Each structure stands twice: as C-alpha cells, then as structure tokens.
C-alpha cells in the first residue's frame, strides 16, 4: 500500500463528517447556505462585485461541491492543495461597502467565519431535518471536525464555533449585522429562478428545481426567513422538514453515480480495512 492509499484524509471513515456528507440531500443544504450567506451585506457584496454568478452559476455550484467533497473525502494533501487554491483566489479579491464606500478584503476573518458557519450548519441541519439520526454528541463532533476545514481557508480555529451551542451563540451575535439588501434580494430571486442547463431545459428542469430551492428556503431559521420578508411560522418548519424527508427518500431511489473523489475514498478505506458503514446508496440508519 502506498502512502497516498493509506491516507484517509482529514476525517476518515469513522468520522461524523464522512457520515453526513454521504447524503446526497446535502445538495439542498448547499442552496440553503447560499440563501443564508446572502443576508450578510459584505459577504454578498464580495460575491456580486467579483463574480458573474448569473452567467456561470451551474459551473460555480459544481466547483463548490467538488471542493467540499475534496476536503471531506480527498487525501490530506488534496484537501490542503484545494484550500491553498481558495486562499490564493481570495487573497486578490476586494469589494466596496455600498453603505460606507470602504474597501475591504473578501477574506476578512469575520466574512470567512460567516461563510464557514452557515455552510456547515446548513449541512448538519438539513441532514437532520431530512431524517439522518445524529446524537447531540455527534452534532458537536461534526462541528469540531469541521474546524479542520475552516483552517484550510485561513481561519484561526480559535474563532470558529465548534459545537451546536457555539453556533447558536454565533448566530445570535451576528444577526444585527444582517440585512435584506438589494444584492441579497437579487441572489435569492436568482436561486429560485436560475437558468436551467441546456441539456435539461426550462420545462423539464424547473419543477424539480423549484422543489429543491423551495425546500432549502423553508429550512432556513425562522429569523432568516423573516429577514427575507417571508413567514417564520412553525408550520413552515414542519412542511420544510417533511419536504426534505421526501426528497431524501426520492433521491435514495435514484441511480446516483458516485463521483471519483468519493469512490477513491471508499477504495482507500477498504484497503485500510475500514469500510464505511454509510454510503450514498444506503438510507438505513
């Protein structure tokens, strides 16, 4: 066995991260995270001022998914290199605050922390709402594991919440900074009605995408939905949870082809005699 084949990456088969990210329902979580991230004026400003997200939205989405998969399932070296690429991109990007005119870096620690927390909390929250059974200790374990992902993009783990309580406290503290800016409204509208890929087409792709985007929005915390001028009612939470469970069940019936990064992780785990209990095709708890 080569050194690369013996490398099980940042987390490994026994980690909560491998378990959670084996769930294809996390595609919904990624959209939820984007809705959340858009509510931070500086975070969304950094995106709209530095990217043409409307033109390359699908490519951008797939690049982000590939990055997350690499961090979770790739070798340690692959994850490290992926993080370095992200840092190099962020290092040269600047944006201007629409309120004050102040120029700022998009890799300010506060912004990186916002993106990280909304992402990992969305992954975890969506998985649980969709029916993935995790204990409170496993939830905290996931947040603690993901400090390694935060460090890859240049964050000091000491400033990143590493438990469910820490994340809840962080959200309470950051909420006064959030707002429904015109940029946030545009991003939210785009997430609901993006152009469909040519191979899929508008008529065929629109209904399933509306189900995904609508579920992702419904899974937002009530305070985030209220910022979007949408109801923060408990009934919305119930409907969104049922929708997430239904989508997970439907996805479980589809012939999903596992990606090369994931397949290679399974191969390395088997070579190490540590076959994971949870795979994409397994909905059993």
Automatic annotation (TrEMBL):
Highest taxon of the lineage: Bacteria
GO MF entries: oxidoreductase activity
Name of this chain's protein: DUF2236 domain-containing protein
ER-bound oxygenase mpaB/mpaB'/Rubber oxygenase catalytic domain sequence ranges: 18-249
InterPro entries: MPAB/Lcp_cat_dom
Species: Phytoactinopolyspora alkaliphila
């Amino acid at each position: 066995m080569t050194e690369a084949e013996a490398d099980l990456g940042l987390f490994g088969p026994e980690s909560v991260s491998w378990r959670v990210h084996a769930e294809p329902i996390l595609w919904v979580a990624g959209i939820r995270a984007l809705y959340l991230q858009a509510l931070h004026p500086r975070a969304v400003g950094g995106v709209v001022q530095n990217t043409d997200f409307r033109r390359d939205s699908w490519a951008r989405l797939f690049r982000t998914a590939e990055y997350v998969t690499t961090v979770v399932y790739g070798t340690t070296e692959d994850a490290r290199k992926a993080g370095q690429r992200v840092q190099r991109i962020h290092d040269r990007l600047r944006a201007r605050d629409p309120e004050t005119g102040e120029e700022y870096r998009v890799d300010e620690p506060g912004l990186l922390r916002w993106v990280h927390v909304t992402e990992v909390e969305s992954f975890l929250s969506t998985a649980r709402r969709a029916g993935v059974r995790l204990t409170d200790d496993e939830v905290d374990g996931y947040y603690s594991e993901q400090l390694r992902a935060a460090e890859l993009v240049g964050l000091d783990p000491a400033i990143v919440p590493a438990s469910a309580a820490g994340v809840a406290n962080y959200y309470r503290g950051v909420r006064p900074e959030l707002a429904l800016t015109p940029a946030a409204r545009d991003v939210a509208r785009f997430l609901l009605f993006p152009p469909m890929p040519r191979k899929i087409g508008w008529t065929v792709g629109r209904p399933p995408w509306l189900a995904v985007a609508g579920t992702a929005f419904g899974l937002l915390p009530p305070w985030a939905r209220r910022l979007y001028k949408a109801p923060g009612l408990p009934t919305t939470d119930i409907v969104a949870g049922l929708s997430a469970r239904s989508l997970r069940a439907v996805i479980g019936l589809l012939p999903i082809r596992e990606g090369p990064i994931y397949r290679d992780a399974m191969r390395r785990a088997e070579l190490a005699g540590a076959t994971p209990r949870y795979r994409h095709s397994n909905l059993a708890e």
